[in-house]
UniProtKB/TrEMBL annotation, chains A, B:
Name of protein: Transcriptional regulator, TetR family
Domain HTH tetR-type intervals: 1-59
MF (Gene Ontology): DNA-binding transcription factor activity; transcription cis-regulatory region binding
Claim: Glycoprotein is one of the keywords in the record: no
Pfam entry (one): TetR_C_16
Domain of life: Bacteria
Keywords per UniProt: DNA-binding
Entries under SUPFAM superfamilies matching the protein: Homeodomain-like, Tetracyclin repressor-like, C-terminal domain
Amino acid sequence: MRATILAVARDRFRREGYEAVTMRSLAADAGVDAALISYYFGSKRGLFAAVLELTLNPADVLASLLEGELESLPQRAIRALVAGWDRPETGLPLLTAVRAAAADPALATLLRGGLQREMVDRLADRLGGADARHRAGAFVGQLGGLVFTRYLLAVEPLASMTADEIVRTLGPALRTTLFGPVRRAATGNDHARGPASA
Amino acid sequence: MRATILAVARDRFRREGYEAVTMRSLAADAGVDAALISYYFGSKRGLFAAVLELTLNPADVLASLLEGELESLPQRAIRALVAGWDRPETGLPLLTAVRAAAADPALATLLRGGLQREMVDRLADRLGGADARHRAGAFVGQLGGLVFTRYLLAVEPLASMTADEIVRTLGPALRTTLFGPVRRAATGNDHARGPASA
DNA sequence: TACGGTAGTTCAACCGTGATGAATTCTTCG
DNA sequence: CGAAGAATTCATCACGGTTGAACTACCGTA
């Protein structure tokens, strides 16, 4: 039954968010008494955390991003992020996760740890140099800003810009964060315009 | 009594957050029956919204930022933001506001509207040019990222960087967002290093 | 085969939450 | 004074997560 509860919970959490899903209704959905959830997961939050650990494993996406050439990381990162968050199947769970983390310090700690370990530290290693960690932090912070304003708050115009437009407006800034304001040796696509468009 | 309730609520919300403050305890604090809160504000959320409107008026800060010269806006914006959010008296209420907005769509709408009207639109006007609105959106998004990662999640290293360090690492990126990757005509402090430091 | 223990599962109840509607007091003004 | 209406309280509701006791099912062992 444990697995059933977990599966049902995953589905409903991602669809309806944390607060909207009640333990009783969840139990009913899984054909089980509500107390059983507490028995297995300790609390509603425990259940949610279990669902998170099950769902939240985009570490491999990150890895593949860092394997590519550093010069194009900004565009690739933006594209991957937007792709992941725009698709409801993957975006909704991420969104509810972040929402919950914003409200619950314990979950925030979980998310924070993940971000530091899987993103900041790795990127800093890859970057190297004196203030690598600072630059990596700023990079992650800027991507976090995208999540925050575009997906969590849906502030215009960011909320309805296309991936290309975001790459065009935010890409250069990310590049500056990684490599500094000075243009590197010309690489040929210095302007990093997205694929053909007006 | 309305004013008393509002005052007590403001204090406790900023200190303990939205969920932790219960209507009964709040009523007791204000020397009033809990039902009176509903009578005046309709609901707990209504009360919170009232508190928000009372508290959240940093529109003037924004205005003064936009009045200064555009070239130095990035540094000044970062400094103002960090100053406001680092001081507990002003930072805590902002934080609980954002937290609540992350959880509650209605409050998110409120915040979103404010950000668009008071920040994006104004900045876009000041910037001018073809994609002014896009650049303004990205600018606000990057500042939002600072709020999100440094204050909401407290991701390192951003969480413990000094204002100077943030200006150094994030400033150039913001400048790129506003003016593009090409350096403008030399202004004398091209590197925008913060005040004397290592 | 009977026994005992342990994991799985349900049941009933607890307590705290926000909300509501009727009942009461307090003001105010004709 | 005496209504009218606002302000305030009281009692109560429905619903949330959680808990402890009870019941069941299984599995190894004497």
